[in-house]
Each structure stands twice: as C-alpha cells, then as structure tokens.
C-alpha cells in the first residue's frame, strides 16, 4: 500500500493539471479576499434597528433621514419592550436597538460603527440639541459572527472543489491503469484491496498537502490586505476544513474508484461518475442553506447525513452553531458510512478492476464478487 501511495503522489505531482488546479483555486481565493474592497462593491451597509415606543421610533426615523451620509441603509423593526429588543440584538435579528424613551442603545458586538453613528445622529436630531452627549451603548451577542460565516463560505467552496476533483482523480486513475493493462502487473504482486487502499491514501495525502498550500497562501494574502486577522477562529477553521476533507474523501473516494472500475475508457469516466457528482454538487448547494441559517432544522438534519455532512457540518462548526455532541455524532456516522463503503468498494473493485472490455453494471460486478467469495471459501 505504501508503494502504491508513493507512486500516486509522485505521478500526480508531475502532472500539470495539479499545478493548474492549485493556481486556479488560489486565484479564486485571492479574488474573494481582494476584489470586493478593491472595486468598491457592496454599496451601503444594511442594518436592522429595533425600536421600543414612539420616542425610539422617532430616533430611528431621524437616523434614516441622514443614513446616506453614513453610507448605511436602515430598516426599522418594532419591539414590545426593552427585553424583547435586547433579545433581537443578542440573536442577530437586529444590529442595534433603541430602547424605550429613546435614551439608550443596545448594539451587537460586531455592529458596524457607521450604523451606530447614524443612530446617534438620529438621536441628536430627535432631541433638538446642537451637540447633545451620545447615547450610552450596551454591546450584546457574540463577537465576529459575520467574519466566521465569511470564513465558512470560503471553506465550503474549497471543500467542494477538492472533494470533487480528487474523487475524479481516483476514478480516472483506475481507468488509466485498466486501459494500459498496468493493473494486470500490479495485481500479480498485490491484492485489489491493497491497490485500492494505496490509491486512496496517496491521492488523499496529496489533497491534504494542496489544501495546506492553498490555506497558507490565502491566509497570507488575507492578512496582507487587511481582510483577515490571524485569530483562533481562523486557525480552528483551517483545522475543521482539513478534518472534514479527510472524512469526506474517505467517504467518496472508494465510490469513485468503484465507478472507475466499471468502465475501460477515459471517455466513459464522466458518465459513470455522474451520479456521484450530482450528490457532491447537491451537498454543496445545500450547504448554502446552512450558511444562511446554521441552526435551522434542515441544516441540523443534513449535518448527520453522511453524503452531505462533509460540507454542511463544517459550515455550522465554523459559524459556531454546532454543539460538541452534534459534531461527534456527525463524525461517528460519517466514519461508519465510510467504513461500510470501503468494505463494499474493496469487494466490488476486486471483481471489476480486471474487466477491460465494455462497460459493466454494478449488479453484474456484485454477482461476480459473490461468486469469487464462494470460490475462495
């Protein structure tokens, strides 16, 4: 297995496709970090302001009258009392709350300073004072929620590309060996299970190395441009992405290897791996729902389903909305599914990898594997 893994790493490193894919991913990552601020995208900062009572609503109305000066767009939301307004801020449903009487503010920890300044300006206008003292502000809620969700978005995009790309590499590598008859020489010295394990380990190690390179370059660019701070959130996000890449790769790579063993020509790889590609793409798009609402019932359910867990659970973990028990259950379910799939894949792979003729069905290969099992018994 070690020899096969080493051969996979050496051969793949020599391919230009690896360096091209790394370069494209780095360019996309740099674009995500640099272009929005460089081109001035984004427009006015949108924010929700909760208001308790008529005086507070008057403050918000005056703030909305001058919001263009602060480059913000304010939306007012009525709250029945101060406790409800503070709860809206703490839950992230409002950025700022003007409390009863219009004499005090409650703001989220990561509320934009321009939003708070606009509300303060509305307070001065509502009180009719030339330079009244600013309202005292109480900070509420968690810190850095928006930054963590931005990191989660970048993480899921990279995970999607890596899982799909390396799964396809496993499938195409199997077909390449079959088409050149190299597999016959390999299987004269090692078992199909060892060959499959070596390919998965070798390509998986290469994938982790590529992820580390991309993550390091992204972190350097983000820090240099001021878009990222090297915090505990960023370091933990990198660790979460690497861990779930390993779990996701274990889950999908064997399935892609089986798909590749069913055909004998590279032209057929895309068609035979299409169902697996659909599953990965669907999981990718479903993860956007978790980005919008990581604590929703759908996001929770998808976190425990093995095909979608490698892209949904890391989003919830990075955003800080997944508990330790949920994470452990998701990891355990994914490992169980991967173990079962590895055993199944080794059996099917051994029966299909020597078939170099026309494409065979999974049902035919499964029957052949059962017959081989009876014969060996």
Q: What are the main properties of this structure?
A:
alpha/beta; 7% strand; 377 residues; elongated; 5 strands; five-stranded mixed sheet
Q: Please, could you describe this protein's structure?
A:
The protein is an alpha/beta fold and 377 residues long. It has 15 helices and five strands. It has helices spanning 2-13, 16-39, 53-65, 82-90, 113-127, 145-179, 182-186, 192-225, 232-261, 269-272, 274-292, 297-304, 309-319, 324-352, 362-376; strands spanning 45-51, 72-78, 96-98, 105-108, 137-140. The protein has a five-stranded mixed beta sheet with strand order 2-1-3-4-5, sandwiched between helices. 39% of the residues are buried.
- What percentage of residues falls in helices of 4 or more residues? 55-70%
Biggest sheet overview: 5 strands, mixed
Count of individual helical segments:
15
Uncertain segments are none
What's the gist of this structure?
70% of the residues lie in helices and 7% in strands. It contains 15 helices and five strands.
Protein topology:
Layout: H1 2-13, H2 16-39, E1 45-51, H3 53-65, E2 72-78, H4 82-90, E3 96-98, E4 105-108, H5 113-127, E5 137-140, H6 145-179, H7 182-186, H8 192-225, H9 232-261, H10 269-272, H11 274-292, H12 297-304, H13 309-319, H14 324-352, H15 362-376
Parallel strand pairs: 1-2, 1-3, 4-5
Antiparallel strand pairs: 3-4
Helix pairs in contact: 1-8, 2-8, 3-5, 6-8, 6-9, 6-11, 6-13, 8-9, 8-14, 9-13, 9-14, 11-12, 11-13, 12-13, 13-14, 14-15
